[in-house]
Write a structure and sequence with these properties.
The chain has three domains: 175 residues, Immunoglobulin-like; 129 residues, Sandwich (Immunoglobulin-like), CATH 2.60.40.420; 129 residues, Immunoglobulin-like, CATH 2.60.40.420. With 499 residues, the protein is mainly β. The chain is globular. 6% of the residues lie in helices and 40% in strands. Strand 18 and strand 19 form a beta hairpin. It catalyses: 4 Cu(+) + O2 + 4 H(+) = 4 Cu(2+) + 2 H2O.
Length: 499
């Protein structure tokens, strides 16, 4: 695949897999481009998706597991947000940032029932915050914009882990700088463990048969300057590097030797805006075991796993022969990546015979929403400004505020009044999908979520219950997880009150 930098990028000839939007949109974000007055057009499939093959291999880097100390029943983790350099485009040095390192961050393991304390020091030059994406914790500890802290300061949230087994992640969430900080590398995975029978039956040895995969599609110019806003994305010739655990896979297929027959993969789309679909290169199925907010009712065979920005999923593979995993990248914003990338070849070197997967992984009782309080949420656009319920949420004062009460049950209709792609994310509690563009959910969409795609002109209905935490000062957030849209105002506040 040849992009407009002249560099050949790896892609198969299966096509762009471009999302077909409701309302006949053939591209993404053209309204914003027009509003900017930019002379720009999306490249054609032929221009961007020339067939090619990887010429290099490298061993998969597994993020370090962050060591913790436990004293008097509290488990303490230490993180430092810091700047550094890394190669986002192979052979080119970029200014980056990460946690405890130059790019990305270590994986944290939390256990249900434990109390954790995080001492997080800001060694950057700007304010930052650390949001624990998907965690059910008090609003004061959530890491949203109200929790931003200045350079040189240390923030020390502490809370009990109420979540069951799932894959979460952590990243900045300060007003106006979220996209900039995340695209430069500030992201890491969180694994929540519990004592359930399902967890005991599934692979769980980190780095051996339980493998994190942090996927990103970024935007960079040829000098390695990583772009994060509209001006940057529309500037000159850009490359759209695809990374797995911080390694560029444009022309490199990573390798992993599986020493157990069954391997569990936790995949996160940490891209600012692009959509990533994971599939097998041989056309085989993946055995999905979890969505973002926990196990499915049972292991489910799927042909692919589509993740919008911020989305996660878990799957297992039982292998007797090598399998190559592919990332299909689809532009999610005004401009972005595209194509199919062989990002990881898993080669078995095991002699064990695992037990059959449990017939039941989880019990998910579907909500009866007949008595739920109905609420309408709109995703809006006015020129270059994004909004929720008509309010441009670039400051805490300008945001729309959703008021609810502890113990309430609600059903929300999220309507996308734009022709743009959005990735709707709700803090605090998981939700069930009730409708997707007027259709009832099926298959893995019957699981629990905190982030879900809302296509241009489309809508979703979601249901949730607000449990455990109330606060009359600190708010949770609801927003688009296309990070540029969040920074441009598509964010609202959620306040859960006692009464």
């Amino acid at each position: 695949m040849t992009n407009n930098t002249g560099k050949t990028r790896k892609a198969k000839s299966k096509g762009l897999h471009r999302r077909q939007f409701l309302g006949g949109m053939a591209g993404v974000g053209l309204a914003a481009v027009g509003a900017a007055g930019a002379a720009f057009s999306l490249l054609t499939d032929a221009e961007r998706n020339t067939a090619g093959a990887a010429t290099n291999t490298a061993t998969l880097t597994v993020p370090d597991l962050l060591e913790a100390t436990t004293t008097d029943g509290t488990t303490t983790f230490t993180l430092a947000a810091q700047s550094g350099t890394s190669e986002v485009i192979s052979g080119v040095t970029s200014s980056t940032a990460g946690y405890n390192q130059s790019y990305l961050g270590p994986t944290m393991k939390w256990t249900k029932g434990d109390t954790v304390l995080l001492n997080i020091t800001n060694n950057l030059d700007d304010d930052t915050s650390v949001h624990f994406h998907g965690a059910h914790i008090p609003a004061e500890m959530d890491g949203g914009p109200q929790n931003a802290f200045a350079a040189g300061e240390t923030w020390s949230p502490t809370f009990e882990i109420l979540d069951e087994a799932k894959t979460l992640w952590y990243h900045p969430h300060a007003l106006g700088t979220t996209a900039e900080q995340v695209v430069h590398g500030m992201a890491g995975m969180i694994i929540v463990e519990d004592g359930s029978d399902a967890s005991a039956a599934l692979p769980s040895e980190y780095g051996v048969d339980d493998i994190p995969l942090v996927l990103q599609c970024l935007a960079s110019d040829t000098s390695g300057d990583i772009k994060y806003n509209l001006t940057g994305y529309l500037s000159g010739s850009l490359a759209y590097p695809v990374l797995c655990n911080g390694t560029n896979v444009d022309d490199t297929t990573l390798t992993f030797t599986a020493t157990k027959t069954r391997t569990r993969f936790r995949v996160l789309n940490a891209s600012p805006s692009d959509i990533i679909t994971v599939q097998r290169g041989d056309g085989g199925t993946l055995t999905q075991i979890a969505t973002e907010q926990g196990y499915l009712t049972s292991a489910t065979e799927v042909s692919s796993i589509r993740l919008v920005a911020g989305g996660r999923a878990e799957f297992v593979m039982d292998l007797s022969d090598a399998v190559t995993l592919q990332a299909v990248v689809t532009t999610g914003w005004v401009r972005g990546g595209s194509g199919t990338y062989d990002f990881l070849t898993v080669t078995p070197d095991a002699s064990d015979t695992p037990d059959d997967l449990p017939s039941t992984l989880n019990t998910i009782e579907r909500y009866d929403t007949s008595s739920f309080t109905a609420r309408e949420i709109t995703l809006d656009q006015d020129g270059l400004e994004m909004a929720i319920n008509g309010s441009v949420g670039t400051t805490m004062d300008s945001m729309a505020t959703i008021m609810t009460t502890l113990g309430s049950s609600e059903i929300w209709t999220i309507t996308n009044n734009t022709m743009l792609e959005h990735s709707f994310h709700l803090h605090d509690v998981p939700f069930q999908l009730i409708e997707i563009n007027g259709e009832e959910p099926t298959g893995v969409d019957l699981g629990w979520f905190d982030t879900y795609e809302v296509v241009g002109g489309g809508s979703i209905k979601i249901a949730m219950q607000f449990t455990d935490f109330a606060d009359d000062t600190y708010m949770y957030m609801l927003h688009c997880h296309l990070l540029q849209h969040e920074d441009e105002g598509m964010m609202a506040a959620l306040m859960v009150m006692e009464s």
